[in-house]
Amino acid sequence: MRFAADPNLTANEARVFWLPEVAPGLVLRLRREPIDGASRQGRMLPPGQTLYAIDGLHLRTAWGLQALVDGDGRGNEPLVIALAYDEHLGLRVRAVDAFERLTSGRPPPKSHLTSAQVRRLHQCLEAVDGALAGRSYRAIAESLFGVTTAEPWKVSSVRATTIRLVRAGRALVNGGYLKLLMGGL
Q1: Could you report the per-residue pLDDT of 137-163, keeping only the tens digit for each?
Q2: How high is the pLDDT of residue 90?
Q3: Which helix (H) or strand (E) holds 59?
Q4: Which of 79, 108, 156, 181 shows its CA 20 to 30 Å from the CA of 140?
Q5: Helix (H/G/I), strand (E/B), else coil: 4
Q6: Mean pLDDT for the stretch of residues 111-128
Q7: Residue in 62, 58, 135 with CA at minimum distance from that of residue 99
Q8: CB-CB contact of 82 with 67 (8 Å)
Q9: How confident is the model over 61-70, as a mean pLDDT?
């Protein structure tokens, strides 16, 4: 993250601002620059939460997209987006498309995650929250799946699934979320 955030708050409440190199699919680097033959009036930045720092204006939009505008972000010159030609180019191009959709009032692009993947991520985080709160695997399973199993607990498929979800949740908490930010799962 670019700025310190209270870990007890949600990402929206804490105003999390990612670094461009950590979240290339979320954060665009912009600068104001005159362009030959281009109109002096470029698109305006979308509304959002802003913070100023030495490296520029940090903007976090309602969609979760972020922009880092070199300097103070003010001026009349059009915004220029420079994309690094590296292994994350596809992520950056998707972020530019999403940013353009936001500024033009179009709907957001579809997530690269399937609904099943999103559901599993939610389950992983709920499971690790329960484990960090000191709850047993059985209690976590009951909150996740709403039922107790009729088969013996030690050999239950529900128990095995719960253990896998807690492990995956711990992996996310211990840095695996960076893989998500980089576009992987």
Answers
A1: 999 999 999 876 677 888 888 999 999
A2: 86
A3: strand 56-61
A4: 181
A5: coil
A6: 90
A7: 62
A8: no
A9: 87
Does 154 map to a domain?
yes
Residues β-bridged to residue 69: 30, 57
**Would you call 40 exposed, middle or buried from its count of C-beta atoms within 10 A (0-12, 13-18, 19+)?**
exposed
What is the full DSSP assignment across 150-162? SS-GGG-HHHHHH
pLDDT at res. 184: 67
Helices 157-171, 137-145: crossing angle, 10 deg rounding: 100
Side chain identity at residue 18, one-letter code: W
Q: Based on the domain organization, do 26 and 99 belong to the same domain?
A: yes
Domain span at residue 55 reads: 11-104
Phi/psi of residue 138, nearest 5 degrees: -65, -45
Query: For position 171, what pLDDT does the model report?
Result: 93
Q: Which bin fits 15, alpha (ψ -120 to 50), beta or left (φ > 0)?
A: left
When divided into structural domains, the chain yields a total of 2
State the residue for tokens 């599993």. 120
My answer on whether 98 and 130 are in the same domain is: no
Confidence (pTM): 0.66
**Residue 57 and residue 126 in one domain:** no
